[in-house]
Give the backbone structure.
Amino acid sequence: MGSSRSRMDDIPHAQQLIHETDFSAAHLLRLHQRFKLLDKYQTGELRPRDFGAIPALALNPIGDRIIGAFFSPGQETLDFPSFVRILAHFRPTDPNRSRDGTQQELANSRTRKLKFAFQLYDQDGDGKISRAELLQVLRAMLETQVVEEQLQSIAERAIQEADLDKDDAISFDEFRRSLEKVNIDHKMSIRFLK
Amino acid sequence: MEDVWAGALWALRVWLYLIVGLIMIPAMFGFSLGISETYMNILVKTLEWATLKIQRANTVERTLNVSASNSLIQRGNGSMEKELGELRRSRPKPPVGGDFTFSDCFYFTLKGIESIVEDEVTQRFTSEELVSWNLLTRTNDFQYISLKLTLVYGLGIFVRYCILAPLRITLALIGLSWLVIGTSAVGFLPNSSVKSWLSEWVHVMCYRICARGLSATIHYHNRENIPKKGGICVANHTSPIDVVILCNDACYAMVGQIHGGLMGVLQRAMVRSCPHVWFERAEMKDRHLVTKRLTDHVNDKTKLPILIFPEGTCVNNTSVMMFKKGSFEIGATIYPVAIKYDPKFGDAFWNSSKYSMVSYLLRMMTSWALVCNVWYLPAMHQQEGEDAVQFANRVKSAIAHQGGLLDLQWDGGLKRAKVKETFKEQQQKEYSSMVVGDDSSSNSD
């Protein structure tokens, strides 16, 4: 019985989430509905396989990594607040807002977006993208289309361009610097409709 | 004690006579006493009144009353090439062929996150959302708004479960038993035009009784395009009731797998009076056999048009999913039909992973009613130079357009199965041509 419609009372700590993530109440409700839709067996939490059921995501070359980024290391389940907090990274930055003076603390700041992307490359979480890790990403995105030597040379060139301290790995700072000119806010934001 | 039993039996007899007289006989002969119309009028007025009441009361909720039928996010329409090109604009163009940059993953990440927030497919496998509550708790949880509304809701429950449901179950049982008995009886006759005529009459009568058993109000449009013998009728699929809806107006030959149990009895009875195409489970896997039998049936101009649902599975009536090309390879005339249910009166979608057939039918019988529109579209033929897949897509678009449904390329089979790994290759190919350059096949030594 009942429906997939959500109400504010269904969402635990709704006000706190709204304050933290800057989602409007309406958007939070819709996200909760979405969460319930993905949670096929009504367990109250999402698992990697629930994400895997989304066809468009399964087609995505780095789909597995994106799913992995939602789950903290060692964690198998995802509850609604965590789900929303991660999605909050992708809200467009609002140029008029500044909370507590520091832009860093906003969930959707440029740094947070970059950190999310960095995490996709840096799978072991050691703060550096090693050559091996870069090769892994390239393999995932190109799979059968490109031979191994070409992958190596592409990885080589990418690292040489961005690796400023010549330690054969890309730190978060080097990563950020190489993407200085990219309009991150535009390219890594989801436009939520009213 | 005796009196109680006698009284109960008497009441039962009166009940049956009423049903037979007021509902079954008019149904069989295709005229109406106006009872259903009156019921529908009252129902529509009640639901409108309820909607107004809810809207007025929910001034706070109204600002949060976002309908899931509207999009949540706006997606960029740029192709992979365009988006990646913009991302790379900040860098100097490298000397040789294509290249890779760290920002490339932004495109894929964004697409991935967008599909997590909202995607075209997963929402098609659950029931459609309603903008306003239709007094059924299966659609929306109960909200206390006012005493009057609660009373109406309570009255609704009583009417639906205690009056309508037994009535409908009785009708359905009568209809199905009559189908079995009638078709078996007709089966004894020798093949002749009388037999075909009688068989059609029996079939239509039973389906009409079943339709009354669901309080179905069906509007047929463009009946001049009704499917003719020797053709194949294709329609979008929402539930098993689609069969009842379509067969109320014309006679079709069914296609399907032979089941055991009650379904099997029905199937075997039906095939005695006129030819349907039933397959054993093992035979369904053999595509050539299936195609051959369908072709043979279609080529015999005395046999009824075949009814096929090319989606292969039930979808929630907001979209049309990929049509399987099997029926479009036969080369017969295709008669497309669009079916659209009105969700206000009851949700017709059969979510087979959530409900069994029996619980689904019971839900149908305790809904308000079933209102749907059926459009017969002009016949279509496979054109020169068009292959089966293109033809199938053309028919699908026509049906989607007429029914006001979204035309999707995704396979309805995704309801149960995961998407094939091989489809990933397409995106990888596109991306690789941007990274390695257009001559990715040549290896520079």
Observations:
- The longest strand of chain B covers residues 333-341.
